[in-house]
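Two proteins follow. First one:
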Amino acid sequence: MTAAVLDTVLLVDDDKVTNLMHTRIIRRSALARTVDVATDGVAALDYLQTRLAAGQGCPDLILLDINMPRMDGFEFLENYSALPEESRCSDTLIVMLSTSVLEADRARAEAHPDLHAFLNKPLTVDDMLRFAETSAEVRDALHG
């Protein structure tokens, strides 16, 4: 199994300890060059628009929490889906990471067309390996 290297991972979570822990896991996996953090959905949308405007492209992976202030994970997905096609990141994997055990949250997440997966926290190195491989497959399919 050869793992692809992700250029950028965006963590979208308001919990500093979770962000620190997930950043360490991502770095330990050695599968991502850069880990960026947005503390809510508004900051994540701003981050994406700023990167695109600067010609930096989209992150390879967005790890999205559900419960955050200002704009939660579901609201982020709805706002992201409403963006014009040129402002969306077609080859970015969006994964919801949550502590929620509610089946309604899982069902709502899995029904969203822009969401790749719904996983329970915490993130693991094995999760990162799967995401890196899937990201490479998506890029290959979209860009030949």
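Second one, unrelated to the first:
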Amino acid sequence: NGNAYHRTSPKNPERFACWANGKKGTESFPTLTTFRNATGQDRNSTVVEGVPINATGLLGRLATSPVARSLPARVARVTGQPAGVRVVGSFSSALG
């Protein structure tokens, strides 16, 4: 939950996700919406389609996306990052 997905277009790749479903086998889903509805997963996730992965494309859109989750104080303290900051992806500095 709180994931950011990228596809070059709504049909590329053809399947958004494949889900292992026990005895039913693997189920395929063409969109994030169909995946959510069938599995109940990724309610706070987003998918960006048809934009390049750069500051003005995907990364630019995700910077203001509500999918970013706040970094818990305990994790922030251990990693030396600010608590409560909402970030999509990794922090720019390497964690040591």
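SUMMARY FIELD: The longest helix spans residues 32-39. The CA atoms of residues 31 and 81 lie 34 Å apart.
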